[in-house]
Amino acid sequence: MKVKLEEFLRILTEQNRLVQGLVELAGEKRRLVILGQVRALDELLKKEGRLVLALERLEDERYRLQGELAGQMGMDVADLAASTLLAVVRERGFPGEDVLQEQLETLQAGLNSLKVLNRENEDLINQSLSFIRCLEDAITRGGSFTYSDKGALVGNRRKISLLDQKV
What we know:
This protein has 167 residues and is mainly α. It has a single domain (2-139), classed as Methane Monooxygenase Hydroxylase, Chain G, domain 1, CATH 1.20.58.300. The chain has 4 helices and 2 strands. The chain has helices at residues 2-35, 38-73, 82-92, 97-140, and strands at 146-147, 153-154. The chain has a two-stranded antiparallel sheet. A hairpin with a 5-residue loop joins strand 1 and strand 2 (153-154). The chain is elongated and about 90 Å long. The N and C termini lie far apart (63 Å). The mean pLDDT is 87.
């Protein structure tokens, strides 16, 4: 069990490294969205995708290992949450309890930061899209109009759209 716990800690450490990388990319993504640097943002999204794939592979490995640990403890894998694993490690006096707790707390903090940054980035992107839609509406509605002194539209001008648009 000690070997499996050491492997579990190695996986958690690597997951924390990847999550921290995603947090850093999310901060950079915010900057690029604000500055409107689309090409740089596209490259950043590719990096982000690679980190997410690596994180998914580690998560599969962690889940497999967690199942093996649960089996050694006589538990179902669904019942072996992080808090339960930490309690068992403490109860059985395995070395690395402090490291396990630190890694679990670091992972939780990193995931919380990533969640907040992703939500903020989503809001910024939605604001940018809203602005683009507003500009598009202003451009596609047609030319300027002339009004009389009473506020009525003068002339019967046909609206000419600058951009062709399918509905």
